[in-house]
Specification:
12 strands; alpha/beta; single chain; globular; 7-stranded mixed sheet; 3-stranded mixed sheet
Length: about 270
């Protein structure tokens, strides 16, 4: 467990983590707990991004949460690059902005908005942040009531000269986000890194991405990293993995040794 730099009353606290100072909700059972105990969250994903993100690249992150991956992505693309970070939850977005500010990050544009296939307004209620919860697990499609937040299409809200990576972790809305980014994807052919942990939506999501001319590979990083920043050997996330897909444009000649190909008829969570 890392030493708290802020330990005031309330749900937020701060530690010095692998990628900088991190403010987080001590009641968050996944992202917050991982940062507080290990000083990082799903570092295997960051290691993968480092294989193809370069200085000067542009990255789009749909569902940035509090910035656990936004900070390392900003370092990977460097001062000449740019990260567009989208987060619709108000309190979570404010924490994201705090983490960017406290680390003097200037190459990230934070957008308080949801991404989808259609423009409009989505209503997002504030949660009970003083109680334990998975605050990154809010599924917008099932919400009713709450404060209005802009819902945008990537094709409409960003005009980019190039794009290296689109990272999407939006709790079941991945298909909708990609549908709203078809023109951007066609123009720039970025790598796609997409969460796919909902069995009932998996086949349609895979079919959509493959129809855009991508090869897909499973990436299943465990929540616990034995080589974590805090050197903490206790695994508080036994048997927990993230279920993601890496999409590579069909025309890019990259060999993904050790990665299993994705097929619409199979899913890593089947039978678990």
């Amino acid at each position: 467990m890392l030493k708290r730099l802020i330990d005031a009353p309330g749900f937020n606290t701060m530690v010095r983590a692998r990628h900088g100072l991190m403010l987080f909700n001590r009641n968050d059972i996944y992202v917050g707990r991982s940062i507080g105990k290990y000083g990082e969250f799903s570092e295997a994903e960051v290691n993968l991004f480092a294989q193809f993100c370069r200085a000067g690249d542009i990255v789009v992150e749909a569902g940035s949460n509090i910035g656990a991956h936004t900070l390392p992505l900003s370092r990977l693309v460097g001062p000449a690059g740019r990260v567009h970070a989208f987060e619709p939850q108000r309190i979570v977005f404010q924490t994201l902005c705090a983490n960017l500010a406290i680390n003097s990050v200037t190459n990230v544009e934070a957008h308080h908005a949801a991404l989808a296939a259609e423009t409009g307004i989505v209503r997002i209620p504030d949660l009970a942040y003083e109680q334990e919860n998975n605050f990154g697990g809010l599924e917008l499609a099932r919400l009713e009531g709450g404060a209005p937040v802009p819902q945008r299409r990537l094709d409409d809200c960003l005009v980019l000269q190039h794009c290296r990576l689109i990272k999407i972790d939006v709790e079941g809305m991945e298909h909708s986000v990609i549908t709203g980014a078809r023109a951007l994807i066609a123009a720039h052919r970025p790598f796609l890194y997409v969460e796919n942990d909902r069995l009932e939506k998996s086949a349609a999501l895979i079919t959509l991405i493959e129809s855009l001319g991508y090869r897909l590979y499973w990436h299943l990083p465990p929540m616990f990293n034995p080589d974590n920043f805090a050197r903490d050997e206790e695994n508080v996330f036994p048997n927990l993995i993230s279920v993601n897909m890496l999409g590579i444009p069909a025309e890019v000649p990259i060999s993904m040794e050790g990665f299993a190909s994705v097929s619409a008829g199979a899913h890593p969570l089947q039978g678990r």
